[in-house]
Every structure is written in C-alpha cells, then in structure tokens.
Amino acid sequence: MILPQGLLDTSDSTGSKGANKKKQVYEILKSRIMHNELKPQEYLNEPKLCEELGVSKTPIREALQHLERERLVVIIPSKGCFVAGISLDLIREVFEIREVFECAAARFAARMPSRKQFEALLKTHESFMAVDDAGVRHSLVTGYQIHQVIIDASGNSFLSGYYKAILAHILRIRLYFLDRFESKRLHETCDEHRKILLAIIAGDEDAAEAAMRDHLSRSLLNIGQVMMTLR
After folding, report:
1. Do domains 17-83 and 88-230 have the same CATH topology?
2. Which of 6, 127, 162, 187 is the most exposed place for a label (fewest CB within 10 A)?
3. Domains of the chain: which residue ranges?
C-alpha cells in the first residue's frame, strides 16, 4: 500500500523496521514518478525528501539506487539525482517489448478453455461504459488493467514477471500522455480494447494477436505525434 506523503509506517511485527522503511520510501517515490507528481528530469533533492518523508539519507539513497536500476531516475556524479526523462527512444523500446509480450499473451488468452473473465471484463470495465470525453479519459487511467488481465491469463509466470518489470514505465507513459490525447484517439482506444477482447472471447488467436498489434502500433504512432507538438 502506498502511504500518504510524510506518513511512513515504521511498525513491523518482525522487528525489521529498517527494511520496512526502505521499502516504503521506494514505493512512495516510485508511485510519485509513475503518476508524474515528480516530473520528468526533475531534480530530486535528498535533504528535502528526508525531511518530507521523515527518514535519514540511507533509505532515500537506497531507494534512488533501486529506481536507477529500473531506469526511473538518473544519478549523475557531482550533480545529483534526476527523474528520468520520457524520450521517444524510451517509449519505442517499451512498446517493442510490449508488442512481443502482449501479442503472445493475446494468442494464449484466445486458446484458453474458458474465457469468461474476458466476457466479464468487457461488461464491467469502466472504459466501456463511459460516454463523454471526460468520462472516457478518466476511465482509461485504468485501461492498463485490460492488458494486465490478458498477460496474467497467459499462465506463463516468466511472461508475467517480465511484463511486471516494465509496468511502471507503461503506466508512467500512459498517465503522462493521456491528458494530451484528442477525443478521437480516446474513443479509438476503447474500440481497440473491445476488438481485442472480442477476438479473445471468440477464440480466434490470429485475430486477437492482430488486434493487439494494431492497438499498440496506433498507440505508439499517436504518442509520437503528440510529442512532435510538445517540441
């Protein structure tokens, strides 16, 4: 659970308060980066973070080192630590990996004996019930859940594990660009998600893979177009 800012819970039944505190600091900073509360290329002031979170330098530095390994921050000698930028190269790399993982997962999902969970998702996910632009935009914050269900349904623990390793980047990119998407793209995204799920429910592996690949390709293209307008 992500704790409120400045309210670290240091209680731990095992007595491992230090380890618990380090984990909480890491989770809080990671959440802020993913949600763009800490902006791309923003300087991370260690003393300020220590004061805000009520911890010493050690858990802050260890958390930042962990985040650097995940490519969410950049540590520059003699200059300090900065939130990693969101470059087109980074986005392209993330989407290339997503295409490999998610297209395979879509095929696996379509060959499952029971696909009732996808039928339920099609009926209950908020993005399929939203009507106006504001509702669709808000609902797509959790659009990653559709992809996550497909990945987890693969039954492949290695696939799920590798996907989890890039999930923070997927969410960060989604939340960074979502407010910048035009109305047309928002509704197209919902339609593409629906097409993927319908292909899976129908048990059509080729259609499920093709729909996923098309969706990811369109998403990457749209993000690239948005980035051009931000320069």
Report:
1. no
2. 6
3. 17-83, 88-230
Highest CATH level, class, for 17-83 = mainly alpha
Residue 52 Cα to chain centre, angstroms: 25
- Give the rounded distance of the alpha carbon of 191 from its chain centre: 20
Please name which of 214, 185, 189, 231 lies closest in space to residue 102, comparing C-alpha atoms: 214
- Tokens (6 digits) for 228: 């051009």
162 CB contacts (<8 Å, ≥6 apart)? 97, 101
Reduced to 3 states, what is the DSSP secondary structure of residue 223?
A: helix
Phi-psi region of 42 (alpha: psi -120 to 50; beta: other; left: phi over 0): beta
Distance CA(26)–CA(224), nearest Å, equals 30
Amino acid in the structure at residue 173? I
pLDDT tens-digit profile of 112-170? 998 999 999 999 999 999 888 889 999 898 999 999 999 999 888 999 999 999 999 99
Query: Any idea which fold 88-230 has?
Result: Four Helix Bundle (Hemerythrin (Met), subunit A) (1.20.120)
Burial 24-38, CB ≥16 within 10 A → b, else e = bbbebbbebbbebeb
Contact residues for 120 (Cβ-Cβ < 8 A; gap 6+): none
